Amino acid sequence: MDKLEKTLESRTVRPTAMRLLVLKFLLQKKVAVSLTNIEEYFDNSERTTLYRTLKTFEENGIVHQIDDGTGTIKYAVCEENCNCELEQDLHLHFYCNNCDETVCLTEYKIPHINLPEGYLAENVNLVIKGLCEKCSGH
Fold first, then answer.
1. CATH code, domain with 50
2. Which residues span the domain enclosing 131?
3. DSSP-derived 3-state class of residue 107
4. Is 135 annotated as a binding residue?
5. What is the pLDDT of residues 85-123, one digit of tens each?
6. Helix (H, G, I), strand (E, B) or coil at 63
C-alpha cells in the first residue's frame, strides 16, 4: 500500500483520488497554503471538492488551520504524532511580511497558559510577523 494511502487510512480517511492528490501537494509544500493556492494548482477541480477535502483532513488531524492575520485561512500538514490538542501540539507560526509565506515552527511550542476561572480555550494561534530567513538575507 502506498504511503499516502496509509497516512489517510491511519486517520480513518478513505483514500480517494482527490484526497491523495491534495495530500501529496500539501506534503510537497514547505509553507502553509490557502484554498486559493490549492485551486490554482488543481485548476480543473471543483472548489467545493477541494474545500471538503481540506475540512475532512482538518477534522481528522491531517492538517491544521492557520490564521496568519492576512484574512485568508491557510493550511499545513500536521506533524506525524500530532493530535491538534490545545494542551499538547501547539506551535508557533511565522508570517513573512515580504514574501507573504506562512510557515510552521513546530520545534517552538506554545506553553500552556492558565486562564481565569470560567474561561475555556477553544483555539490558540500565535503568529510572529517579520522577515523569513530567505528575505532577511541570513
1. 1.10.10.10
2. 2-136
3. strand
4. yes
5. 545 568 899 999 999 999 999 888 888 888 999 999 887
6. strand
